Structure formats: C-alpha cells, structure tokens
From TrEMBL:
GO terms for molecular function: ligase activity. The keyword Ligase applies. Transmembrane segments: none annotated. This is Putative e3 ubiquitin ligase vhl component von hippel-lindau tumor suppressor in s. Pfam families: VHL.
Amino acid sequence: LPIKTPGTRAFPHILYPTTVCSAQSCDSESVYPRECEMSAATELPELRSKESTHRAFVLFHNTSNRQIELFWIDYHGRKISYGVMQANEKRKIDTFVTHPWTFCDPHNKTQILVNGSNVFYPTVWYEGAIDLVRMMIKRQVATIYLAIRTLKELTLEKIAMKLPNAYSAHELELPMALAGDVECVYKELREKIKRVGE
C-alpha cells in the first residue's frame, strides 16, 4: 500500500552534513557519524544517540503555559537545541528510535517531563502507526507538561535567580536554614545552565 511521506522534515543527522568517512563505512544515504568511527579511547555517556535505520515520526505537543526548549541528544551525549516551543505549540520531528530527546525551561533550565519521563525515546513508525483510511503515517504524540512543584520550591528558585552569587543568600533577611536552601538552589541552577551550555 502506498504511504504518504510526512511533509515536515527535521532529521537530526542533517546536523552533520560535512562528515567524512571511507567508502567502506559510508553510503549515499548515511551522512551522520557512525558509532564505529568514534575513537575507542573516548568514553561516551550512556545517554546518547545510537546508530539506527528505524525511522520514527513524532508530534511534540507542549501542553504547558510556558516556553519549552527542545533538545536532541547527539552521538557524543551533547544536547543539541532544536529551538523553543511556545505554550500549546505542536511540532513535527522526523527522527530515529534510538535517538533520545529532552526538554527544559529555557529560563531556569528546569527539566520538563514528556509522557511522564525526563527522556523521550521514539518508537518505530510502523508499530500501529498507519492510518489505513487516509493512507498516511500517524505520528507518535509526545505530550510535554510541567511537573507539580511546591510553593516553597518555586519561591526558593525565584529568589535564587535574582542573586549575583551563591553567598549572597546569607545576606538576605532569612532564617539560616532557608538561606542555606537558597544557596543550594542557586548552585543547582548554575550547574543546570552549565550542563546545557556544554
């Protein structure tokens, strides 16, 4: 049966258009770095994209009321930004089943859940994903939403985001325990921002 190919294309491997490899390890349809090409001495993180020929078609839906930044985890475990999604925005992404995706608040770098998990792995497109009536591929829907947080967590984060440095927390008119909490939140935020920037 003929299948209508989705019109929107955003293949992660397009990020590597200049990859050079030998004729033995590459063909005309493969332009992204293969795992076998990476140095054996390089210790790669567990959370990373792995070589796959199984395509996946996803529809990301930001059901929250705030902006969400979308990241593809590349073959080295680095976060590659695919832009910011607005509140209630839907975005079509064509990817592969072994390619993980994560999401965060672009302002405070807080991790955002997708389908109840911190990391999203697509499923292969042909697993119950064909609409035989309209003869087209049905995209896997990935629902992005905010985890419920306490008022204390939100307040500490708001205060921490306004501080010039971690030690400034102890200059505020707060009980010692709360000042310590603010300092910890500040350090966590800085670490999140550092990881995203790597």
